[in-house]
């Protein structure tokens, strides 16, 4: 019996850790821009929540596969925002949006 | 219809058999072996059942008490589920010693059952143990052969067959009398052994006291009875046609040896040739090869982002976190992949089992063995049902944990931590073996073959006796 339980314990300890399966901790949120006020952008997420992130001088922009710019961002546009570790206040590391879309297809 | 003359012959033969010291020794030995086999089976079953129950309880406690962690980390922490010991495995352990007893359930991977009891077995146990099923399907036919080979051939050798017929006894009455004469002494051994064995099994508390085993147990008894009747018919038919009782004995022993020891491995080898199954390594490699063609984690995340930017997830209230969507989707894809491979593997095993069953056309003991294991719940089909139940439980467990993660509304999804209240939402693994009706629907071919053999040997013995020569 002890051998049996030891076997199970050993198997549990040998289980690969979760962190190996999911490397990296940059988090990306999906949403549609509700409003833009200077460097503060409010995004309505796919869950229906409003979240605000800040555009910093280090924020990069990607329009499709090409380089984009902060000026491209408009209300109604779908974006995917890399918010790093996700700790508030949220700061955007990079913002992605579709090459062919300037406003949401609504 | 049993005539008075048939009864007279039966009583005479049974009395002579019973007075034979050699038979009494053989009968006593079989009786002791049967009871020893039941005792050994019950003791072993109790031990294994207790180990499984203790381990399952310890595993459940470990699951609930593992502390606070991320729901997906909990999925990687995993859980063990144990195959419940079937109550009738004390009668026929079947393939249980050769099949894994527990499955480790975890995220991203579906495992085969591990730890085959035979791996821990002592060298003597590896040689095979006497089980009640072995006694009923191997030793009992040998005793039947010893009781029937001289039924007609012996009378003919001693020159008493013609005088017996001259008394006006019909050949049909003679056949019935000889059959009853052989079965009566057997009944005197088997009836008490069966009753004592059944009481012993019930008093020892079956592995799962609540399991409805009456239909399965009745089925087992019927299989062993029909099998013994088939051998009685075979013995009488061969005895009626053989030139001498020595010839009858040799023929019947050859048939017995072929049924008990030659046909099972030959039929299995043929089944494996007809339907090859992958080795464990090949099976795992096929899954890994397919997974290697899949996009890696970053590509998956990128694809989810692109689909969103292209207009997907419209009003679906999908989690805002891209990685969670990628995680849930990859988990679903992996579950589908494993389901497909495991279904194909168990389909292969099922086809092998069907090929094995077909060999019962020339060996009735194969049909009886197949039915015995199936009714005891220890064959490959039951293992497949358990594996399927474990896979469903794994899917349910992952859905509970991943749904919690997806609905957390957290951006730091992977830093999201939950505790015992969530672990309790994953219910304990509960497995119920299929019903006896399911067993018959799965093994209808063997059941039909066994009944066809009974009908066939009945016709053959009638024909052999009606056409036998008297000198």
Mean pLDDT of chain B: 89
Strand content of chain A: 35-45%
Unreliable spans of chain B are: none
* CATH architecture level-2 label of the domain at 26-97 in chain A: Beta Barrel
Structural class of chain A: alpha+beta
Oligomer: heterodimer
Largest sheet of chain B: 3 strands, antiparallel
Label the structural class of chain B.
mainly alpha
**Largest sheet data of chain A:** 5 strands, mixed, barrel
**Which radius of gyration of chain B do the C-alpha atoms yield?**
29 Å
**What is the count of DSSP helices of chain A, taking H or I runs of 4+ residues?**
2
Query: What is the rounded Rg of chain A?
Result: 20 Å
What fraction of the residues of chain B are assigned to beta strands by DSSP? Answer: under 5%
Contiguous low-pLDDT stretches of chain A (5 residues minimum) are 4-23, 102-106
Largest interface: A-B, 40 and 48 residues
Helical proportion of chain B?
over 70%
**H and E string of chain B:** HHHEEEHHHHHHHHHHHHHHHH
